[in-house]
Amino acid sequence: MVSRRSIHSTFFVWLTSAQPALGGAVPLDLAKSEVGAREVERLVGRLEHGVFS
Question: Measuring CA to CA, which residue among 26, 29, 53, 28 is closest to residue 42?
Fold first, then answer.
């Protein structure tokens, strides 16, 4: 079983690291604008549904 702390830690690393699916952008940086936040939301939605970009 994966602990909640482990999941939060992994998500924080993802959120603060350059993501190829976002053109190398850092999700937290993108989320500072409305357009960027929508792009991050779309990527998270794809990941939730198993569509890896």
Answer: 53
